Amino acid sequence: MRSVECPDCQGRMRWKNLEEHRKSECDGRPVQCEVCKGTTTYGKRQVHKDHECPEREVLCPNAADDKIRCVWTGPAKDLEKHMEQCKSKAEFQEMTARFAASAAPKSPAAPKPKQLAPTPVVPPRPKAKPAPAKAAPPPAKTENAWPLQQEEEAKAFAARWGLEWCLVKVKLEGLSPPQRELIMERFQCPPGHVPGGKFVKYMDSCVENGWKYVQSYSEWLADREEKLRAKALAEARAAETKAKAAAKVAPARPEASVTPSKSFKAALAAPTAPGPAPALPREAPLVEKWESLAEAERSEVSKKPPPPGPPGPSWLSGPGPTPVPKVTWAEILGNQGEL
Question: Which residues are within 8 A (CB) of 182 and not within 5 positions of it... i.e. 6 or more apart?
Answer without folding.
Answer: 211, 213, 214
